[in-house]
Amino acid sequence: MNIGEKALKARSVYIHLPFCKSICPYCDFASYANKSAEMKATYLAALKTEIRAVGELLGNIFCNGGAESASEFTIDTVFFGGGTPSIHSAKEIEEILNVLKEYVVFSDDVEINLEANPGTVDLEKLQAFKDIGINRLSIGAQTFNQDILSKLARGHTVEETFEIIDLIKKVNFKSWSFDLIYGLPHQSLDDWKSTLELALEKGSPHLSAYALSIEPITPFGSIYGSPEHPDLAGEEALAEMYEVCNQMLKEKGLNRYEVSNWAKDGHESRHNLCYWKADEYLAFGLSAHGYLRGYRFAHTRNIEEYIRLFTQPVDIIQKALGTGTIYEDYKFIGKKEALEEEIMLGLRLSTGLEKRNEILNLLNREKINTLISKGFILEYPDRFTLSEKGYFLSNGVISYILAG
Known about the structure:
The chain starts with 11 loop residues before the first strand and ends with a helix. The N terminus is likely disordered. Helices cover about 40% and strands about 20% of the residues. By secondary structure, the chain is α/β, with parallel strands linked by helices. The strands form four sheets. The protein has a nine-stranded mixed sheet, with helices on both faces. Strands 12-13-14 form a three-stranded antiparallel sheet, with no helix packed on it. The protein has two domains: about 260 residues, TIM Barrel; about 60 residues, no CATH class.
């Protein structure tokens, strides 16, 4: 972690727990199934070593800046992603949080989010998660069509999804969310509407909906080859699914605040907003990507290599962190690139993109005007936003205005 004069701005932490009951055929995240208890324990030990090593460097940063300790460094959000973090015990999660608390303080209203899959928790476990400070859950439902769900090999049933919702309500978490996928193999518009109706019926205050992505290195990549496969929804069908999703959620008081995310007021994911606002954040664990002191960094996806790196002597780990050589990818983001990232991410948000001079200087005004005339972008005195039509094509719109 490069130590210089630049102020430390990160207020969020991502922690990657890569273990799963089974691997979904569409997933290209760094995740592992059927690993031994010994491997899991070794990984958690390496993860805690990484947190301590970075924590000591944070302490050096604060001391160099005249502060008495790193306790002045306040964290507002923590996100446990994976993998399936909910397969871990509350004790294992608490131990990670306690190590983190050795070096930072949590704000009074800290958001601590845990990804949880149906079939991995019971009432006692959920209550234990809440007791250690978890106050938000992201539920990997994906679909409420049992036939389609079975083909996704997620290791749970629709009935188990209903059960986890009932348990969440009993424990009374501060907030929770459904993760859903549309454009799944053989999924019709009516199937998708039915899934949305059930999600709304269950009262989720937040919903994330993503179009299926066919990744080459996954089983689905081998089966379907490309998004143009006849078993998959075409672009027009995907656009209709997206439009239906937005309309149905809006009618029930869930407002879109980012291209793929809807929430009732006060239930937005504060952690994910950190990413979309291009804020800096800490990241720990296998394949974790972080952004700190102007550097973007990413760990290896190889679990054996990650464990090897963080079971070395402390002085070697400290040196490798200080120079960035412990990361698989380590790059300083200059001002122009940082502004381009802000443009790409900012336009995904409903609040849009500020029309500051440094932003305007990077935009192709002629192309902006073309997209405004075609109804893809809306212009206001102080900002640009995507139109209803522009949201579904957001990636293409953003690429277009940034190109020369």
